[in-house]
Amino acid sequence: QATIYNIMKKEKILITGGSGFVGTNIIHKLPKDIYEIFSLDIEEPKINFKNVDYINTDIRSSRLGELIKNIDPKIILHLAAQSSVAISSKDPLLDNDVNLNGSLNLYLNSTKSNVEQFISFSTGGAIYGEELGKKFKENDTTKPLSPYGISKLNFENYLNYFSAIKKFNCKTTILRPSNIYGPWQNPLGEAGVVSIFADKMLKNENVSIFGDGSEYRDYIYIDDIIEFVLKAIIDKAEGTFNISSGKITKTIEIFNHISNIIGYNKPPIFLDKREGDIFGIEIDNSKSKSIGWSPKYDLKSGLENTVKFLKEK
Question: Among 249, 253, 268, which Cα is nearest to 201's?
Fold first, then answer.
């Protein structure tokens, strides 16, 4: 009887930032027969999924500890963040308050509960700094060039410190994704060039590029990220992992690809680059591949899926 009960009992997972772009996609794909899902966010969910408990709370809240105790999750997937480099440059206090103070509030409160795995989304694009021609590995020196990169790195440092002193009985996984794109990414925000370009092109509006278009990033489709998250949960993977496509693409190439898919004919408008924006970043994904994961989506199919989603919306 006990064994049947164990099979039936779902594993509780608390997702912070569950209403965001990545959170929405992960909740959509998480098997609901295996996980009991709790989504914590200050924003309303983009879709109300059945069998998901939505909690409207800020990660900086003094009630967080009590909340975590009541839920008693086994896994915390931490996505809640101030995620714009541009906003972090304009308001570093806010950025630090959410990304460091809020995250630390969440982590320390989770260690007072029975959390077994804490998975934190950091950043691959903003943490290493800039060294053109270099492909960054996880153990390379980090030199963030924006308050956003600094706040993300500072929280990583705390997690690594607590892991090293083995103070808490909780496995820690740090994910450093490159530029994620796909369905549900906010086309009206400061970040997420794919959705911003596609949305404007679908409305036949002008598209602005900050810089001259030769700036490059590593773009990874959201489903490849989810695949890694699921693997990290199942394998209880510990440590820091770059999640990237392993390929670089210039901003102008993204512009051209999406123009071709949509049939958009206007030229881009080039503007000065924004404070904190780096010229280019290349990220090595061999450590993530070594645990049996690899990206499945090429840029073309990922962009087509994203455009299709925005059209249907």
Answer: 268
